[in-house]
Write a structure and sequence with these properties.
It is a single chain. By secondary structure, the protein is of the alpha/beta class. The protein contains nine helices and 18 strands. The chain folds into two domains: about 170 residues, Medium-chain alcohol dehydrogenases, catalytic domain (Quinone Oxidoreductase, Chain A, domain 1, Alpha-Beta Complex), CATH 3.90.180; about 130 residues, NAD(P)-binding Rossmann-like Domain (Rossmann fold, 3-Layer(aba) Sandwich). Helix content is about 25%, strand content about 25%. Helix 3 packs across helix 4 and helix 3 packs across helix 8. Bound molecules: NADP nicotinamide-adenine-dinucleotide phosphate (NAP). NADP nicotinamide-adenine-dinucleotide phosphate (NAP) binds next to helix 1, helix 3 and helix 4.
Length: about 325
């Protein structure tokens, strides 16, 4: 038995709030009785877990809380499943990401870094037999976010040029791999030469140092970095281009540069997670194209501290997978 838990908000030292326990704590908010158990076979670490340890988006009165927002495992009838981590309110019928009362697993109800997680039955999606539990566990948060940024919110089509800010992150590697598989010309920036090299191996057409002048303007920019890259993202766009933003790892209050936005008629579009249907489409895309997540390493949940430490230091390339 194992559960990876955040005990208190720890803004400056996220590792100080992490505990690996031999059983999950009693939930502060109990999942509804009709939710079904999934035996977790693999889960993956997201930057969201670091924000939770820092107390961002997770108030102290909901702690202790089991971390983890995505998983693949075995459902109540023995079927192999992928867990869609967006929990909408009962009776919600539209786009789950637009439900104002939605939460992500580990925000209100216990997360996936445990032997078992309880979820609404509608959040289970069949795992394709071609895919390992470890690969499937990378998809519901980082990869689904990338899918929606590129193809739903960004409306990118084959032949366009897209700039991905950051190379090594879970979302950034997904953007590179999915964009390349879909016939986009993918340009990637990174602070690190090794990560830039490996982005080329993942399918990037060209790589640049963070903030470097580009040879041409791009149709769309995919932003998860925030303050550190925002001005460069706006400068990189062609007139009428689209900036899709789903994260702000380096800070969320960049200068807006409104003159550039209105004069060049740029579109700035927010994007968050994805729907259950988009997760199913992403799984089909992975099966038909053969694209698979870049997995940095697979670790036992007991070693979650090492995994979080590497993410905080910015050393991860792709996804860190945790197994119970
Ligand atoms: N809205 C949503 O639904 C959603 C979903 C998933 C993630 N997110 C957010 O998206 C962000 C990324 O998530 P993740 O799980 O992919 O995290 P991650 O694996 O820790 O990724 C970090 C990425 O940020 C880049 N980076 C960090 N600091 C930077 C800086 N100062 N300058 C330039 N680049 C920097 C890194 O690029 P290098 O290659 O240079 O190291 C790397 O690509 C997080 O803020 C997360 O909360 C939002």
């Amino acid at each position: 038995m194992v559960a990876v838990v955040v005990t208190h908000p720890s803004p400056d030292d996220p590792l100080a709030a992490l505990e690996v326990r031999d059983r999950a704590p009693e939930p502060v908010v109990s999942p509804p009785e009709d939710w079904v158990p999934v035996t977790v076979r693999a889960a993956s670490l997201n930057h969201h877990d670091v924000w939770s340890l820092r107390g961002v988006g997770l108030p102290a009165d909901r702690m202790p809380m089991v971390l983890g927002s995505d998983a693949a495992g075995v459902g109540p009838d023995g079927e192999e499943v992928v867990v869609h981590g967006v929990i909408s309110q009962p009776g919600w019928t539209g786009d789950e990401t637009e439900d104002p009362r939605r939460s992500l697993l580990s925000e209100r109800y216990p997360g996936t870094f445990a032997d078992t997680v309880l979820v609404p039955a509608r959040n289970l999606v069949p795992k394709p037999p071609e895919m390992s539990f470890e690969d499937a566990a990378c998809l519901p948060v980082a990869w689904l976010t990338a899918y929606r940024m590129l193809f739903v919110r960004g409306g990118c089509v084959p032949g366009q040029t897209v700039l991905v800010q950051g190379a090594g992150g879970g979302v950034a590697t997904a953007l590179t791999a999915l964009g390349s598989a879909a016939g986009l010309r993918v340009w990637v920036t990174s602070r690190d030469e090794g990560k830039r090299e490996r982005a080329l191996a993942l399918g990037a057409d060209a790589v640049f140092e963070t903030g470097a002048r580009l040879p041409d303007r791009v149709d769309a920019v995919m932003e998860t970095v925030g303050e550190a890259t925002w001005a460069h993202s706006l400068r990189a766009l062609r007139p009428g281009g689209t900036l899709v933003v789903s994260g702000a790892t380096s800070g969320a209050s960049p200068p807006a540069d409104l003159q550039r936005v209105f004069f060049l008629q740029l579109r700035v579009v927010g994007s968050t997670m994805g729907t259950r249907e988009e997760l199913q489409r992403l799984l089909r895309m992975c099966v038909t194209t053969g694209v698979r997540p870049l997995v940095d390493s697979v670790l036992p949940m007991a070693d979650a501290r090492d995994a979080v430490e590497r993410m905080v230091r910015g050393e991860v390339e792709g996804k860190l997978v945790l197994t119970p």
